[in-house]
């Protein structure tokens, strides 16, 4: 007997058959084996969990544990201080930045992996304003920020504005072009909205910001590892993002900072630590920044997390971001179809755009009892998350989520919605 009871058997048979065909054709299917996921002891698909929260914390790549054990026991335990040099610890932020760079569409020498996204937003935004004002353009005294942003971006933009003497202008991304002008210094935008999953037009908005002579900082937290970004191609000035979502770096793994090559000589960090000094072991009293992406560093890197992320990048071997994007769109399309087939009309409302060009890699469904529904879903092994006040979020990580997962999640959701307090 199926674990779910309320879905029409014909619809269930049809969707399961389609999932099987789609999984059979999936060129990324084998990648799932590179991750630690729940397994069903009896190999019954319905007994295994479905993990749809990789847009908050990516699953554990299977090779990470052995690497971290080696870093702890050999590199730290035996080599101790020698590892800064012999194990390449000192240069790890830029070396791992170069490994990450192709996933962001960046040539080498522009990315460092260090600090948190919050800290990197601060560095990038203040540095962007300083670059613009250094041009003698002190008339530029406005920072534009996405008003629907993940809160940390808004808080930091507000502080950056106060520190640089700018006025903060919060607006919805669609309204950004309308507020740009000769006074705009810098603009901070999210590539995808953390709540709705809406993908914003990175090439178009970047061009609009450049057209008024300002610089743009993109927060890529919800897109890196889920779709091609094209930082170099689209002329992005600065970008930041976390590595613990679609890049599977682990809880609290360090974030990254991209500084476009042409801006590096003028990148004047508001946090000029000794790790960004041209001669860190000179222990000089005067600050002279390194020439390249290293300028984005601050203090001692968190080696254990950083090297766990380094190992997590191994799963990208032979994977193209175009293939990841194609599967992400197919998965989210299929999930929406299953929801439409299983859930009575009107019970949930998708706030994720249907148009592919406007969709990231998550589906957000709104319903009044979302908090209770997500609690029940998680108890039943379908793990998404809840964002106040009424949003169910389901993240689809193409490297390890299957079409069978998408079908099952929609089916358990339909059952749960029928039983939950806001149900019929
Ligand atoms: C868009 C966005 N920016 C920033 C953050 C947070 O960054 P941090 O790693 O500094 O907590 C998140 C998620 O936590 C996020 O979704
Ligand atoms: N960074 C997180 C954390 O430390 C604990 C719990 C959740 C997170 C998240 O990443 C949340 C995520 N940025 C979001 O989109 O809501």
From TrEMBL:
Sites bearing N6-(pyridoxal phosphate)lysine, chain numbering: 245
Organism from which the protein derives: Streptomyces lasiicapitis
Gene it is expressed from: kynU
Cofactors named for this entry: pyridoxal 5'-phosphate
Name of this protein: Kynureninase
Entry keyword Hydrolase: yes
Residue sites binding pyridoxal 5'-phosphate per the record: 117-118, 150-153, 219, 222, 244, 274, 300
Subunit structure: Homodimer.
The entry's keywords: Hydrolase, Pyridine nucleotide biosynthesis, Pyridoxal phosphate
């Amino acid at each position: 007997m199926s674990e779910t009871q309320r879905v029409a058997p014909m619809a269930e048979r049809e969707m399961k058959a389609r999932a099987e065909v789609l999984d059979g054709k999936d060129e990324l299917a084998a990648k799932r084996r590179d991750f630690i996921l729940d397994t069903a002891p009896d190999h019954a698909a319905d007994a295994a969990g479905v993990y749809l929260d990789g847009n908050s914390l990516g699953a554990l790549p299977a090779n990470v544990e052995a690497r971290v054990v080696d870093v702890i026991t050999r590199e730290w335990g035996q080599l101790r201080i020698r590892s800064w040099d012999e194990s390449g610890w000192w240069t790890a932020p830029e070396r791992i930045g170069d490994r990450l760079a192709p996933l962001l569409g960046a040539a080498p020498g522009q990315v460092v992996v260090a600090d948190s996204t919050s800290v990197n937003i601060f560095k990038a935004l203040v540095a962007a304003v300083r670059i613009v004002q250094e041009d003698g353009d002190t008339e530029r005294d406005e920072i534009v920020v996405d008003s629907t942003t993940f809160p940390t971006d808004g808080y930091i933009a507000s502080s950056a504005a106060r520190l640089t003497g700018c006025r903060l202008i919060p607006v919805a991304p669609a309204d950004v072009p309308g507020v740009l002008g000769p006074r705009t210094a810098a603009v901070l935008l999210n590539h995808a909205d953390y709540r709705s999953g809406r993908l914003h037009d990175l090439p178009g908005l970047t061009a609009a910001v450049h057209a008024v002579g300002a610089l743009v900082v993109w927060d890529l937290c919800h897109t890196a590892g889920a779709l091609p970004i094209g930082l170099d191609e689209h002329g992005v000035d600065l970008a930041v993002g976390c590595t613990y979502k679609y890049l599977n770096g682990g809880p609290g793994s360090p974030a990254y900072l991209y500084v476009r090559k042409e801006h590096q000589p003028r990148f004047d960090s508001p946090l000029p630590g000794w790790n960004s000094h041209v001669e860190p072991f000179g222990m000089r009293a005067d600050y002279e920044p390194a020439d390249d992406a290293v300028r984005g560093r601050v203090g001692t890197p968190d080696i254990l997390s950083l090297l766990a992320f380094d190992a997590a990048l191994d799963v990208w071997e032979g994977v193209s971001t175009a293939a990841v994007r194609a599967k992400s769109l197919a998965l989210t399309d299929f999930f929406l179809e299953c929801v439409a087939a299983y859930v009575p009309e009107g019970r949930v409302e998708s706030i994720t755009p249907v148009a592919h060009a406007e969709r990231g890699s998550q589906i957000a469904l709104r319903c009044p009892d979302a908090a209770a529904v997500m609690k029940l879903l998680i108890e039943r092994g379908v793990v998404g998350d809840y964002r106040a006040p009424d949003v169910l979020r389901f993240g689809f990580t193409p490297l390890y989520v299957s079409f069978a997962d998408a079908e099952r999640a929609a089916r358990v959701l339909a059952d749960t919605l029928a039983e939950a307090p806001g149900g019929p």
